[in-house]
Amino acid sequence: MNQSQSTDRRVYGIHSAMSMLQQSPRQIHRVLLAEGFHGNRLKRIREEALRLGIRVSTVPRSTLDRLARGATHQGVLLETVVAQAKSEQEFEQEFEQWKNPFILVMDGVLDPRNLGACLRVAAAAGVDAVLIGKNRSAPLTEVVHRTSTGALDSVFLVQVSNLARRLDWLKDHGCWVVGTQLNASNNYLKADFVSPTVVVVGGEEKGLRQLTRAKCDHLVSIPMFGNVESLNVSVATGILLYEVQRQRAGELGRTESAK
To answer: How far apart are CA 127 and CA 240, in angstroms?
Structure first.
């Protein structure tokens, strides 16, 4: 399929609404505001929507309660068509444009809140793409969008039919694949993330599948110093992604100082 997948979706909450207005306004059909709304942030949302030519309607708060299915909407809801995932063909086309690819792969993250949090971290860390399996991932629901605080619309998200085969493709195209494993002997700080890098994180309970682990060039762990055995997947993902950026920033500094 050459086109990005999309679906009708309701986006609610002030932060998510403003983020989408800034990043993906063409995907918004209408902005719904609670009757008698007040507050500078809601006024800003109304003004920005009107500036962009998006229809704005005021409705009873009970209508927003019903449309948001009881979730906290903070007086605003967007009726949208939100892009969900790119095709593998689109990914391969974009890959050719990246000078030093930085990719996150999630293998079996089934909790939509964890998936949304990982997408938010990925967007903040500046990854080029996020890859998830079509059959081993949480569905891209409103919960994912809300938890990602709009990052679902801004990251280059790809659903792949076979993660192991795609990892082989990435290795053939010059990427080092670094997977996470709780008991791996290699500390993540000792890994080389300066080269084209694919960071692979596993699901909440079982971590990486055996086949996925076998495709990794290196397995690394994040040391635990306290009384907990492991970190939430989104926290671990954030630590790893920012280590990639830290190393690359240091390499850039060394290169510039040598000129």
So the answer is: 12
What is the C-alpha separation between 51 and 54, in angstroms, rounded? 8
Positive or negative, the CA dihedral 37, 41, 43, 49 is negative
| DSSP state at residue 2 | -
Rounded Cα gap, residues 119 and 138, in angstroms? 12
Residues 232, 222: Cα–Cα separation, whole Å: 12
Q: Is 228 exposed, middle or buried (CB count within 10 Å of its CB: 0-12, 13-18, 19+)?
A: exposed
Going by pLDDT thresholds of 50, 70 and 90, the confidence category of residue 8 is low
76-85 and 28-34 strand pairing:
antiparallel
Paired tokens of 129: 């793409």
* Mean pLDDT of all residues in 238-259: 78
Rama region for 39: left / alpha / beta (φ>0; ψ in -120 to 50; rest): left
> At CA 156, angle to CA 233 and CA 247, rounded to 5?
60
Q: The tokens of 243 are what?
A: 């280590």
| Measured distance CA(76)–CA(74) in Å, rounded | 6
pLDDT tens column, 63-94: 999 988 888 999 999 988 655 688 999 999 99
Angle formed by the axes of helices 233-257 and 112-125, nearest 10°: 10
Beta bridge partners of 107: 202
Longest dimension (CA), the chain: 63
- Cβ-contact 25, 50 below 8 angstroms: no
Give the pTM. Answer: 0.73
pLDDT band (50, 70, 90) for residue 11: confident
User: Which residue shows structure tokens 């962009």?
Assistant: 52
